[in-house]
Inverse folding.
């Protein structure tokens, strides 16, 4: 049987190159086309020595494919994805261009007018743990942002169960690869090594995405969310620590409450291949290179507060791995295909 | 004029060795005695090559000194400090043994019965920005913990001004040196490198210290504090991100509110040598090796929340540097003496 | 068809745990037994969260297996491996206990008398690029050390071709995981982070192994080898830079010589799956998590010297991956089985 | 008495900003002018928060100074330094523009024709341990490169004593700050973190400088030098490992030889404030932020070879600190003035 032909648009960023690493070993898929502007004409293996086994030349235009992954920056991505859909190609867009349901959010948060607002309704937010059946039926997936993936998976069971107040603080710590392969002083080695800082205090672009999805998990008014990302001196990984008050009368206090809480999370993620509810505070290291999200719901007994922590690899569950998980669902492959490799520790 | 004789008890931990580095260059002080158990009998320079210029032998017992710094672990420190006070020696205790005012907290949080509860009243919490005059008159200083230093300095102006609700979340990110020089799997290089994790979710020992001090800054009930520390793959530095709702009607909304907020912080820290109120999100790197605390108060305009961030070097303002600042006050030296070196960047 | 039953002795060290990661995804093998002393009785997944999918309990004694990997320290490993051979179990020993052909080297370099000198002749040095057919026929493999793997692969083509003088300097740079999971001050995070140092200047234990193998590649007297390992602040990877004078008249000078040199290396490693001869200076990062050795032979035209560089992941090609490559050969599986995952970059 | 007025040309690179940090605390000097092109018009403290105490505006042109430090790139530096000399300003040039004695080396190694070859004879190579008296009398100092500083100090005593053959291998490991503050993919965090690589195998620009100075230390033909620099995932520090055969009959073999060797080095560096001859393999960490060079001469007894190791902070003894040491000599200040701060460890 012939393999599904996959293309990677903008293979030269970290999400693109991670797609190449994972798709190359996917048994149902063949990478047939990889694009990139500045690197067009070069062999993929020449630009990325770790992909030496892949014999492909980077081109300016996408070749013939069944499914396309766009790893372009926002605004540019929509422009390239729209014509592909018209050609009947399945699209997984790793940019933010189809994540927000309200077209008015694009000028506000991303500085451009959306070129195809009608597609915002059709596009499915590609978080399989929440939208599995819609993803399976979709032709356009808005692959979630790295921070939203960690934040939503940390909070979804609690919001769905109605055990927390809609007043939420999300404090995330990300490795530097999340900032991409484009050069900047903020990702210059000597600046970021041995340093921690918070950024985007005026409002990070992932905030509307997080708010939108958290609101859908819970009846009533949109939760009030404060989200602060931090840059950490490591390459991969996001740890998210989310805080919210428990709604009175929903969860027992003390040890008993912790057991109830764990039960709620275990039930919610029952059967999920890529979310594990841990019994201890997770380490991002245990997800390195792997599509896993480790979630740890914990109780601050003194203050009656939920502290929900999640750990992911921002380039895998936070980008390329989740994109492949979505493609698997869209194409009818087993959801874990090509994503079975364990995390590389230590 | 003869110099003040200083002794360092347990010089072989990171706080102790940092005291040696800083005191050696202090113009009013001479280090005359350094103690350590396992290393007793060895030359200080043999154990710590960067102290090659200091000609001292590590001893088991403290020699003759005017002022003693104890860098012993909790419980052991109190036992060694008490007799020194009786000899008329000024003591700066870097352990937690005199920080908590309520003796009942010691069995609960530290697992031992305090040997001298009467000293808890006398001991001054060594945060000069809050207790300068008391420190100057004291003979026993409880040098604050590294996390409390960052957290209290981030929140003090807002609490004092009564602009935030007493419901506070403190999310701290610490370099690994905070865990000390004692070996453990959690500080083994390959385990902590390229990793972030939260710890002590069941309640970190610095929580009662933070709560005690925050309560004193504000009339009314003790604030409800959730504190979660995180371990970051770097050697030095603590970044603290603190969150609290603004009290209605206290601060304008929008840009105007940010200016008011900055004004409140600038006024509070006016004239302080070691606290700077920054106009942008601070980096721990800018305090590396230096006694500075950089504070950045910020407004989440959408949610009407204070986000107050502080950056310190955990071994300097969070331990040895602050101890010397306290000693300067106790001994009548200018407060900045011996602490003038700028941060080492990058 | 039933799978080959594999056991890992001392699964709790970094080589052991890396074997578990890789073997778990090996299609011809089932891990049926994992041992460990201090962790006996615990679930493997409880000790190592990234192995959460593997349902095995760590035991004190090895269960029934077809092939055993010993990741024990030297001296202890031989003692455990010898009885296994008698039971007809194939053994890949990752320790040094069967690497040296001369039993007299054990008291000298490892401080113990070898318990089975007769096995030193039988054991095959498990570097498939040199001993492929012997490995396929062997029942006992001495898996090479991490430094020797990088050093020998960097120099073998040049020695075999007779183009260098037998006076060799090997300067290696290793990540910290090479020092294992046992706690020590030298691998304590705050000590090794932001630091580089040379060690074992009095003679590292891998020196006799390197000398033995280099001597076998070249007729005439044993080469004079100086080997200096360095510790680098990263978790995985060894970069080896080897220096030797070119033998007069063997290689052209200038550009032409570089082409000849590359040709010699390309010919030597023709058809090898796990050695790539690169056209540029390699990065250890491009082998992270993967069984590849990247070799770059280069000419110092001014001094008529070979500079041969190799990059490996010390835990994969330098330990667990190479052990599986050896097992594949011993068991008649395709050599690359279970080792196909690409390096995780960045 | 009035202070010496110092200017820093191109303060915005890492050498420039390190000069500012150290000069600000120099008791005999006042920084009166700092220049920078892209940052002209900005406050120094705004660009570099750790310099918050320094109240200076970055200008395009240098103001009135007694001594100027140029931290410009090569080629540009000479052009700015030449007119300053004519104005009677003492100049310490941190670039390579006056280091090489033979003007013909500039087109060959640096790609430009030297604008003032006559100054190459006058300029003094600013390594105080070799040229102290000439420096004291000079008006133009060519501050040594970071690699040459480490390499020459590691080898000088052995070459001067005539105990090694003139066939030398220098393998250096440098932190990333040596590559400067200008953005490049090779210094992008995610590329260089968890990676080691060799570079400039075709011939690094510091090679002619090293060869020139090593040749001057020894009668007879110019030594044959192979020099390979490596990039290490840390911010500061260079460790240099140099290898050379012992000349027959010059040094005893075995333990006795090691003592003789140490004696030769101790004698050579007797009275030096900034070179320490260590009794064990040095760590770059022990020089962090400090002007020290730690040298460890060691004997490979088996191969009768010298292994000489040195550790420096590339931005201090390898750049800004040594520049200040040179200025102290030129201005008649005690050589250690302003450089007394101990290394920041851990």
């Amino acid at each position: 049987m012939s393999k599904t032909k996959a293309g990677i648009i903008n293979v030269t960023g970290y999400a693109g190159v991670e797609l190449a690493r994972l798709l190359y070993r996917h048994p149902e898929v063949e990478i047939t086309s990889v694009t990139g502007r500045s690197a067009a004409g070069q062999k993929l293996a020449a630009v990325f020595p770790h992909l030496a086994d892949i014999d492909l030349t980077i081109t300016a235009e996408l070749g013939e494919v069944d499914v396309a992954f766009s790893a372009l920056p926002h605004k540019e991505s929509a422009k390239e994805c729209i014509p592909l859909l018209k050609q009947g190609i399945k699209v997984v867009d790793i940019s933010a261009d189809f994540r927000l349901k309200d077209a008015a959010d694009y000028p506000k948060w991303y500085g451009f007018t959306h070129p195809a607002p009608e597609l915002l309704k059709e596009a499915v937010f590609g978080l399989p743990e929440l939208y599995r059946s819609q993803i399976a039926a979709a032709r356009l997936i808005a692959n979630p942002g790295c921070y939203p993936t960690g934040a939503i998976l940390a909070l979804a069971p609690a919001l769905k169960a109605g055990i927390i107040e809609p007043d939420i603080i999300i404090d995330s710590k990300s490795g530097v690869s999340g900032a991409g392969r484009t050069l900047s002083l903020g990702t210059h080695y000597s600046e970021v090594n041995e340093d921690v800082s918070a950024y985007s205090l005026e409002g990070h672009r992932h905030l509307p995405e997080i708010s939108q999805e958290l609101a859908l998990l819970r009846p009533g008014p949109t939760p009030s969310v404060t989200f602060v990302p931090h840059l950490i001196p490591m390459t991969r990984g996001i740890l998210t620590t989310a805080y919210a008050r428990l709604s009175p009368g929903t969860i027992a206090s003390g040890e008993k409450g912790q057991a109830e809480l764990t039960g709620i999370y275990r039930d919610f993620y029952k059967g999920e291949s890529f979310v594990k509810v841990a019994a201890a505070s997770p380490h991002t290291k245990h997800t390195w290179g792997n599509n896993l999200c480790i979630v740890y719901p914990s109780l601050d007994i003194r203050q009656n507060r939920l502290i929900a922590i999640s750990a992911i690899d921002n380039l895998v569950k936070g980008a390329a791995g989740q994109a492949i998980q979505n493609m698997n669902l869209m194409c009818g492959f087993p959801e874990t295909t090509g994503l079975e490799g364990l995390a590389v520790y230590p």
Notes: The two ends of chain B are 39 Å apart (CA to CA). Chain B touches chain C through 18 residues (CB under 8 Å). Residues 263 and 278 of chain B are 11 Å apart (CA to CA). The longest strand of chain B covers residues 164-174.
